[in-house]
């Protein structure tokens, strides 16, 4: 951020430009810490303890899977309450309560001796951890950044490295001290780091007298990026600042909103807007396919003739391709308008649709994914488009509907995404058990996803009608 002040010298008034780091980047860092503290509540984190839970509680893997699905569905049903709390009490209060509840749920998990206690602990872990922090993180970052949301999203995505590294970090501790002591240790680490991060977060830049993205109070991004080269000298005349080249002040980057105003939808208006539900359903179906494939990918490709060891080895290139997709999108999307971002989303859906078609083909088809080479190429392409999709999903709702009711909006979105992610593995597993293959599930996902994408493509961008300002364009 740049701050311009006038100082009086021997030659009159002189414009002085001072550089300051925008506080929004400290907020991103705090959100990253909160994201990483929720690692025990993600599937990759729980997986580290599954074998130990099976032995200690004397249960089957089917029971663990059923408890996990029930926890996802239960947490998704109350996720909108987290959005309401975020809008009403702010991220500091909501985040502090969520972190404390997450710590208590970890302690409850470490003491679990029966299936009901285990299920209760997992349910609270999912809600207070990944669900609450996803709502808080997406809402807060999108409130602090508007024109630079892409770069902010890229910075925040670096926390994924911590989530992926979590199993390796705690595995040795489990071996040495046992899984219950490890979970107890994690609870207090999460509490300390989480509460510290919450002290840094603020609701929005306006609460500190700042503007989104660190812009000038006038909201003109050109002033913060071009001021040093524009201001050549200033003179004091009738209380005004005269500049030699005022025409250059009108040069602006491509606007995010054509009318220069960010939309400010009320929550009731958002949930009554069909475009919102078209976005929710299409992204939710993608989540369903993503979660189902993640759990059953090894067996699915094995049915197509690809060895299981080869499929397991494709996890790394898939993750790298997904990261590349997110980076590419985040660095380019800031120069796009809302309509261009939605066009990019539809192109991403097209790529995901092609990936679904290829994975649904029988092994005898000429285009089937039935060799390790084809499986590797498919995973790289699929991972890249997944990275694009996740990056756009994190900001598109704020772009279209604004920041005013973003907490409650993200609460509804998280509920849809979490519930579909919980149902996905069940749909794929049911298809495998009843038909002997996964093509029923993949074909069904393909058909419904196509319909949802076509509905989204055929609908125009919504325009909010205000009694005071009339119609507001968001293109």
Describe the structure.
By secondary structure, the chain is mainly alpha-helical. The chain is 69% helix and 6% strand. The protein contains 16 helices and six strands. The strands form three sheets. It has a two-stranded antiparallel ribbon. It has a two-stranded antiparallel ribbon with strand order 3-4. Helix 3 crosses helix 4 (115-144), helix 3 (61-110) packs across helix 7 (179-200) and helix 6 (160-177) runs antiparallel to helix 7 (179-200). The longest helix is centred in the N-terminal third of the chain and has 50 residues, at 61-110. The two termini are 27 Å apart. Residues 218-254 and 467-475 have low confidence and may be disordered.
Layout of SSEs?
Elements lengths: L1 E8 L2 E8 L3 H15 L5 H15 L3 H50 L4 H30 L4 H9 L2 H18 L1 H22 L20 H10 L4 E3 L2 E3 L24 H5 L2 H30 L4 H5 L2 H18 L5 H23 L11 H30 L4 H30 L3 H20 L5 E3 L3 E3 L3
Antiparallel strand pairs: 1-2, 3-4, 5-6
| Alpha-beta content class | mainly alpha
Order of helices and strands: EEHHHHHHHHEEHHHHHHHHEE
**Sheet with most strands:** 2 strands, antiparallel
Instruction: Please report the distance between the alpha carbons of the first and last residues.
Output: 27 Å
Estimate the helix proportion, in percent.
55-70%
Put simply, the count of helices is 16
Q: How many strand units?
A: 6
Q: Which quaternary structure do these chains form? A: single chain
Quote the beta fraction: 5-15%
- What coarse outline follows from CA principal-axis ratios? globular
- The stretches of 5 or more residues where confidence is low (pLDDT under 50) are 218-254, 467-475
Mean pLDDT over the full residue set = 80
């Amino acid at each position: 951020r740049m701050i311009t002040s006038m100082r009086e010298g021997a030659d009159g008034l002189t414009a002085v430009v001072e550089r300051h780091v925008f506080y929004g980047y400290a907020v991103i860092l705090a959100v990253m810490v909160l994201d990483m503290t929720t690692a025990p509540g993600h599937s990759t984190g729980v997986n580290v303890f599954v074998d130990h839970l099976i032995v200690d509680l004397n249960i089957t893997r089917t029971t663990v899977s059923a408890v996990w699905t029930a926890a996802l569905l239960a947490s998704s049903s109350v996720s909108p309450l987290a959005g309401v709390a975020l809008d009403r009490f702010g991220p500091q209060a909501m985040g502090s309560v969520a972190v404390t509840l997450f710590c208590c749920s970890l302690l409850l998990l470490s003491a679990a001796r029966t299936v009901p206690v285990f299920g209760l602990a997992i349910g609270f872990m999912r809600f207070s951890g990944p669900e609450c922090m996803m709502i808080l993180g997406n809402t807060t970052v999108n409130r602090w950044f508007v024109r630079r949301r892409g770069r902010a999203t890229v910075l925040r995505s670096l926390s994924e490295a911590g989530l992926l590294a979590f199993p390796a970090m705690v595995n040795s501790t489990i071996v040495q001290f046992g899984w219950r002591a490890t979970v107890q240790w994690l609870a207090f680490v999460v509490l300390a780091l989480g509460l510290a991060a919450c002290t840094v977060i603020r609701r929005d830049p306006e609460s500190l007298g700042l503007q989104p993205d660190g812009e000038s109070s006038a909201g003109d991004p050109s002033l913060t990026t071009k001021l040093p080269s524009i201001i050549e000298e200033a003179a004091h005349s009738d209380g005004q600042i005269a500049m030699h080249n005022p025409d250059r002040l009108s040069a602006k980057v491509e606007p995010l909103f054509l009318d220069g105003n960010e939309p400010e939808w009320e929550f009731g208006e958002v949930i009554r807007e069909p475009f919102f539900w078209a976005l929710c359903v299409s992204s939710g179906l993608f989540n369903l396919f993503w979660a189902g494939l993640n759990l059953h990918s090894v067996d699915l490709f094995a049915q197509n003739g690809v060895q299981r060891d080869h499929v397991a080895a494709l996890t790394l290139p898939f993750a790298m391709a997904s990261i590349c997709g997110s980076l590419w999108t985040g660095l380019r999307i800031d120069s796009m308008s809302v309509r261009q971002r939605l066009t990019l989303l539809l192109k991403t859906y097209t790529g995901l649709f092609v990936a679904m078609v290829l994975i649904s083909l029988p092994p005898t088809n000429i285009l089937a994914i039935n060799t390790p080479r084809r499986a590797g190429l498919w995973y790289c392409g699929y991972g890249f488009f997944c990275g694009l999709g996740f990056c756009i999903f994190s900001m598109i709702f704020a772009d279209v509907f604004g920041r005013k009711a973003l907490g409650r909006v993200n609460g509804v979105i998280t509920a849809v995404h979490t519930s579909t992610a919980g149902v996905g593995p069940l749909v794929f597993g049911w298809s495998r058990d009843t038909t002997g293959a996964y093509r029923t599930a993949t074909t069904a996902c393909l058909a419904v996803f196509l319909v949802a994408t076509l509905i989204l493509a055929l609908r125009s961008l919504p325009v909010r009608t205000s009694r005071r300002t009339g119609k507001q364009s968001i293109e």
